[in-house]
Write a sequence for this structure.
């Protein structure tokens, strides 16, 4: 499926691009955030998200079972976790221009809600729920598979994005390295601190550096996670 130009689509055009005969009111509800409903009244997307989450999980689990016959339960669970994650769904939502259609309250609009991972992922689930109620289980399943399964080629990156520190530690061990070592520094007053983390992965004998990266954030954890993700990207891109 090709990316949709977010600047030129109406909801009807979005529905046509997605290939689903949506009930217009259901698609509109799927794209209505609670902040908008609180200010303007009417329904919001959370009940559709509930349905969509179940449809998404079931469709992906069955697809993985059929397409990965040599993988055990643990590996299938890891694949599923990555494919249905907030990171994955938000990327899919951006690819179809979903953010431009979101109905948001004024506060969410001011703070960039149209590009927030959590809002986009929730809206994507709600769209799956709206597809189910509009056109039935087969149409909803097909929509999930068309949008989500192409991400399988990126499942390692998506999994690392969910837990970059663990992913880096596992990759370091697989590549013959020591456990990652983090160094932290902070600047600024207590109410406005900024942190920089540096992570180094050395070879098992300590004779060379396999990966090194830095990250920044407003908390120690955020800085370390960014550094870990960058180091994982560096290490995963190297030849074994």
């Amino acid at each position: 499926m090709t990316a949709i130009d977010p600047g030129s689509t109406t909801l009807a055009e979005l529905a046509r691009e997605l290939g689903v005969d949506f009930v217009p009111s259901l698609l509109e509800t799927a794209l209505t955030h609670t902040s908008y409903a609180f200010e303007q009244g009417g329904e919001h997307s959370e009940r559709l998200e509930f349905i969509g989450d179940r449809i998404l999980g079931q469709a992906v689990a069955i697809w993985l079972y059929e397409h990965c016959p040599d993988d055990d339960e643990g590996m299938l669970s890891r694949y599923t976790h990555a494919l249905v994650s907030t990171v994955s769904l938000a990327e899919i939502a951006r690819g179809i221009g979903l953010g431009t259609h979101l109905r948001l309250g004024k506060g969410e609009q001011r703070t960039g809600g149209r590009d927030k991972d959590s809002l986009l992922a929730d809206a994507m689930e709600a769209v799956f729920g709206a597809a189910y109620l509009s056109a039935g289980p087969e149409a909803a399943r097909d929509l999930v598979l068309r949008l989500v399964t192409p991400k399988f080629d990126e499942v390692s990156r998506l999994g690392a994005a969910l837990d970059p520190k663990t992913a880096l530690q596992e990759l370091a061990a697989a590549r013959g390295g020591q456990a990652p070592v983090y160094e932290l520094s902070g600047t600024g007053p207590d109410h406005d601190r900024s942190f920089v983390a540096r992570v180094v992965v050395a070879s098992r004998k300590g004779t060379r550096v396999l990966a090194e990266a830095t990250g920044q954030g407003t908390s120690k954890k955020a800085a370390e996670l960014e550094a870990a993700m960058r180091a994982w990207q560096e290490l995963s891109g190297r030849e074994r």
Q: What stands out?
A: The chain has twelve helices and three strands. Residues 164-236 form a domain with the Double Stranded RNA Binding Domain fold (CATH 3.30.160.20).
